[in-house]
Here is the input.
Amino acid sequence: MATMRAEELRVQGALALLRHAHAHPGVTRAEAAASLGLSSGSATEIMGRLRAARLLGERASAPTGGRGRPSTVLVPHPEGPLVAVVELTHATWTVTTAAIGGELAPAPVHRHRGGPPGEVLAEVGAALEGLRARAGDRLAAVGVALPGTVRGHTVVQAATLRWRDVDLSGLAASAGGLPLTVGNDASLAGVAEALRGAARGVPVALHLTVEVGIGGVLLVGGGPVLGATGAGGEFGHVPFGDPGLRCPCGAAGCWDIMVDGRAMARSLGRADPEDPRAFAGEVLAAARAGDGPARAAVTEAADALGRGIGALLNALDPAVVTLGGLGADLLEVAGDTISAAVRRAAMAWRRRDGLLGLPPVVPAELGSRGPSIGAAESALAAVLADLTRERVTRR
Ligand SMILES: [Zn+2]
Here is the structure.
């Protein structure tokens, strides 16, 4: 009994140091020990165990000029675990890896033709098989980010990919039967912002990504609130829009189609664009250059975005709102319009200044890497505790 308890304490100590190093890349052993309330001797002992378990390594830290022995920086073990990270967009796919510490390895972006799901999944599966062959046992899990509504391993609906009820379990098989996590790209970008970006350390944050339509997530204590089946966070399909307009999701009046390239095309009297994201980029560029009609279309989209944010503040009461993708561009080009619309939609008491007033609406820090960083975090979170338990108790 006493032995079991001592062993459990060893696992918990190792996991605490590992999680701290993962959350704070570049942290020194001395800093980590201080944050966790460990003596220098305990930190050294735990670190020895994590090194032997091929989870963490150390490198010399740059001299600080201070007194005392220089500490070392905690780094991922050179033979440590990796997770495969798959990101799908409406037009591209990438497969890369992340290690403890969350850094993504550079990887090429491949275009897909928007064909049937089997086609693009076969390409992604082949890339995962190749990765498995190269990384071998180091590969520990697979995390997927994509623009769709996800329940478990199934994409129930992805309008921009034209997917319905697509099971992604086969991707786990391609990687040798590893644990698989699948998430909505905007929700995962929010997870990334909460852990490593503009919402870091914020108790309750709202993240919204505008690309084609709008997605997001409420983050409480750094974790996503995704509902009973993981399909929550579809803020784009709340009817903040024109009830006379039908959304590709099947509902009427969605916010989704009021804030992106499709909305800008309507403002400009143009047909529905083939690639609404690219079209929005062109309109933004024209607006930046001073083009009047483009400016008006951008203002209209920014106004719709702000109105919905104001409504969500009333409902969810976040301490900060982070905006990614086109949302960050709109904030830059038409921030005043967004602010004014937020204020108009917010309840009167929120318009007072001060602690209880309107929370800041800020650009997401991680940009287009958000979904992949979030997918890596999600996959690592799924396996880190088990890996530590297995490897630390074995010795
Ligand atoms: Zn909709």
About this structure: The pocket of zinc ion is lined by residues 237, 247, 249, 251, 254, 256 (CB under 6 Å). The first helix runs from residue 2 to 23. The chain has a mean pLDDT of 93.
